[in-house]
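Title: [Solved] AraC-like DNA-binding protein 3D structure

Original question kept below for reference.
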Amino acid sequence: MDLQREAIHLDARQSFRLLRWKDNVRDVESILSPRRRVKFQGSGERWHYHPEMEITITQHGNGTRFVGDHIGPFDSLDVVLIGPNVPHFWKGLHGSAGYAVQWNLSPGQRQAQSMATTTGLALSLPEMEELKPLWKLSAHGIRFSGQTAEKALSLAEEMSREEGMVRLHLLLQLFTTLARAPRREWQRLSQRPFDLSGLHAHQPAIERAIRHILDHFREPLPLSDVLKVAGMSKATFARQFRKHAGTPFSAFVNRVRLDSACRELVAGSATVGEIAFGNGFNSLSYFNRVFRSAMKCNPKDYRKKAMRR
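Solution (posted by the thread starter after getting help):
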């Protein structure tokens, strides 16, 4: 899974762009106005980052969400705010639908020093100070739920039917909705804040390593094999992997395997042992220990709770 810096091109007449997808996040359309749309290939299924901020609204669909060092399952309705240069991608969004909003955030705003160009326009208003905590938290990625998520979807749908100042007004309403979300309706995703803007030299090697992990997590994954794929020494790999992925190699592998195991516990009837070994764990006791540590319950209880929902 290659880590790519996505180039986002805003229309000359707009300070932000509104995107929509109806089946998968590869085939995307940019909604320039209610009557004008441009289709292009999206980057949502590739591990990528960009200096623009983004709100992704998954209206229908489910899969695995990767944001910074966060790896976890999601279902609709799923609303996520992603800060500048935070790596992210969505896995398994086939048969899905949703919206994304992307806009520029000036370097001054990233440092919470200025609110001069919130959407690329001159909006240096005292009222914009309310958004500073939201921008700061966006370096972790934030997931919104409940009425906040429902309101975000409603505003995105309205934006698709409007243009000009009306659309800009709706964007500011969307910002306000997220900034005022009650604590029970938002969750920080990544444990540490991310900004990959300054990391370049070791990116290709880490890209190859992560792609190898995602392609082979059901198999044994000795570190020696991954070091060969990355072409790095053990010490350099350990240091650079943690910088880029936000977590040590072994923890990243376990989280990828656990996410797959959780899905299989809910979706199928295989035994816990079959699921553990089928997802790359070579010891049932180790799987149970890692599972309890991450999920705060054992696999059987997790399956029972999921079935009751």
